[in-house]
């Protein structure tokens, strides 16, 4: 069911999930400071993306129309606003420890830079390749590269949107974000719109977290 074009889109995401499991296990074993895991995770994912870059035909060229770019940026801001407000108790699963970049009471700007860079530059590419480029289209047809984004159908849209939400502690905000990014991809026909929108959300969210000190959102 999985061809050679699927794995370059699956493996970076699999590494991302594996590190979540590792962090949970280390936390249960009593390891206190797990911040070092993040740059290791991001470096490995970035290395995989670079290794497979020529295989990502959907990213071979920048083919975003100006109006679609503006829409992607606006949608990214909208998702940010919704994300920081869809945080009622029933909208959140578990109690995320977050990522605290402080050393005592002092902000460690190196940790902040690494976290924001990873969230805004690496994660959007990795997640959009997996969730939108691969899974969304693969559910429509195993030969997913031949599936036009606009032709994936309602079932694939809904299932991928819900699964994307379940991936996050803020499951409802995740579902909304998944719907927005998928809609952008399906409307524009280019994955770059979803990546840009996702990057805007994550980058601005990082800035908001630093300003407010709401580290659990990381």
Automatic annotation (TrEMBL):
Protein name stated in the entry: CAAX prenyl protease-related protein
Gene Ontology molecular function: endopeptidase activity
Protein keywords: Hydrolase, Membrane, Protease, Transmembrane, Transmembrane helix
Signal sequence coordinates: none
Family matches, as Pfam families: Rce1-like
Transmembrane intervals: 12-30, 36-53, 69-86, 106-123, 144-164, 170-187, 199-217
GO annotation (BP), single: CAAX-box protein maturation
Species lineage: Bacteria, Pseudomonadati, Pseudomonadota, Betaproteobacteria, Burkholderiales
Domain CAAX prenyl protease 2/Lysostaphin resistance protein A-like: 110-203
């Amino acid at each position: 069911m999985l061809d050679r074009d699927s794995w370059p889109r699956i493996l970076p995401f699999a590494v991302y999930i594996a590190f979540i499991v590792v962090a949970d296990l280390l936390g249960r074993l009593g390891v206190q400071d797990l911040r070092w895991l993040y740059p290791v995770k991001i470096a490995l994912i970035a290395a995989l993306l670079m290794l497979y870059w020529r295989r990502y035909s959907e990213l071979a060229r920048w083919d975003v129309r100006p109006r679609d770019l503006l829409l992607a940026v606006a949608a990214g801001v909208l998702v940010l606003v919704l994300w920081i407000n869809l945080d009622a108790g029933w909208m959140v699963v578990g109690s995320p420890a977050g990522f605290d970049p402080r050393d005592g009471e002092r902000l460690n700007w190196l940790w902040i830079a690494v976290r924001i860079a990873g969230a805004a530059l690496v994660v959007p590419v990795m997640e959009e390749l997996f969730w939108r480029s691969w899974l969304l289209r693969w559910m429509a047809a195993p030969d997913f590269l031949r599936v036009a984004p606009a032709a994936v159908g309602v079932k694939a849209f809904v299932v991928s949107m819900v699964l994307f939400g379940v991936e996050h502690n803020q499951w409802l905000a995740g579902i909304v974000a998944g719907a927005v990014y998928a809609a952008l991809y399906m409307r524009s026909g280019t994955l770059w719109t979803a990546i840009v929108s996702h990057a805007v959300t994550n980058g601005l969210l990082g800035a908001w977290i630093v300003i407010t000190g709401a580290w659990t959102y990381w």
